[in-house]
Amino acid sequence: MASFDxxxxxxxxxxxxxLAGFFGYFLYGDKLSESKVGTLAxxxxxxxxxxxxxxxxQIPVDGAIQVNYFNWMQAGSFTVPFAFQIDQLSxxxxxxxxGVGSLIHIYSIGYMHxxxxxxxxxxxLNLFIFFMLLLVMANNYVLMFAGWEGVGxxxxxxxxxxxxxxxxxxxxxxxxxxxxxxxxxxxxGLYMIFKHFGTFVYSDINGMAQSVFNADTAIIGIITLLLxxxxxxxxxxxxxxxxxxxxxxxPTPVSALIHAxxxxxAGIYLIIRSNVLFAxxxxxxxIIVIIGLATTLVAGMIAxxxxxxxxxxxxxxxxxxxxxxxxxxxxxxxxxxxxLLTHAFFKALLFLGAGSVIHGMHGEQDIRKMGxxxxxxxxxxxxxxxxxxxxxxxxxLSGFFSKDYILAxxxxxxxVLWFFGALSGLLTAFYMMRLYLLVFKxxxxxxxxxxxxxxxxxxxMLMPLxxxxxxxxxxxxxxxxxxxxxxxxxxxxxxPVVSLSELHIDHxxxxxxxxxxxxxxxxxxxxxxxxxxxxxxxxxxxxxxxxMPFANFLNRKFYFDEFYDAVFSQPLLKFSTFIxxxxxxxxxxxxxxxxxxxSFFLSGQVRKLQNGHISFYLFAMVLGILGILTIFILx
Length: 635
Known about the structure:
Helix content is 73%, strand content 3%. It is mostly helical.
């Protein structure tokens, strides 16, 4: 019983510690120094990470820890408990969110130094961690949705953190509005779940899934499609992907947090958590494959012609998320989750490394104005290079193992799908090597006066880079495949929660596929090196790009924003203008004003009766009494 009580307390403290940080610093942060605010805010998240490690050691081998606190909502048969489910999936997500989140907090101490909103920034970061923990720890869809909406709110607050800049505020609004589209579908999906299952609790739904499917084979497909639509918004898949690149408007640590460990992973987590339902919906899975594949290829092509260091990484995230959905669609849930973890390590490192570059270059983000930074920012360069090697999937770094796991699983379903997945990897190799070489290698393309001011980041920013570099290099060893004599620890650990893919290939075929993809990636590496270092090619200016149809098509991001503006925004704006001019102003306002004018006129007439003559008042009283008596007689 004591152990059970301890688990209750520890589980509750994990999300409550960052929440306490939010309230403390939002209310009293301005009274504390920067060092105290940064240290304490980071400390809450570090403590949550340590408590998550404790829970990791308590997870039953074949089950989950259900921690029920109270009934949060109850009306008739509608009951929503405030309860946590600590199992193999949620506890790893908890460690990821708090572990990477704490490193980003520490990094932010140096990056946000001197900002007027320093305390407010850390309050928002703490709140972001709280809501993400609520999302992954919930044992039911409603509590999960509360965290889901919470991370959406925090993304709005952090993307628009420098709200005095109209462009940043617009980016925050865009992120918030686009996500509401996906959330609307998800809400209807939750309604359908309760209608057909009578509960929102994961374990109860999983137990009834097969019987509901047998009774109505279409209903699981509808529910999963609605949940996937919600995931499409949060995890930035086509057609709801356009918010994520614009989310770069916020401070760089926010980009790292959103892209690596929190918001964009929520959609992947939702589908993996609901894998029992998705396993019964083949049509939904085919749609996920198509959307995931389209997203990973389109975003990869767009990244080829982006010149803002953060925009390249943003489209890289969209592409990598598409690859994860691609894996989910073929039922490779463990492979998708493995890549989610390794991607969190090297993408956080890439964004924080980019932030270090921006910090060292005093705000410059255009890679065409960089070059030769490896000598001036030695530690940032080394850690950034490790992240690049990891994301382009060269052995033996983490991305190699997770991408190979996905491609091997996909090949078991279709060699054609494998080809397109491998093509996505080649696009990744090209745009990431292009980014790395233009920033750190070759000749400097900046004025000498500006080059002399470049400096390495302070140690408080570099320390998280070292840790993430180690994770990016070694993180793949958590799931060494059997072809290398490994035990595939992660896959086996997830067995009680995640349905394992039945797509298998023999070791000989796997060796051939790994060899082909590795050789092709190395070919891309040498090609880009020859192009951007030996030949010293520099990306075209925006004016030149405008004269190159296909390159400009990529640079303008397939014109998604222009299309949405023409098809949705402008018609709605014109319609609202019409309503405002001809309905609201001409009709509603005039009708409303008429009532006011009538009241004003009548009050003016009634006011004349107040003439101050007592005889008139007595006469009016008699008339009133006679009127009342007449009414009673007639009735």
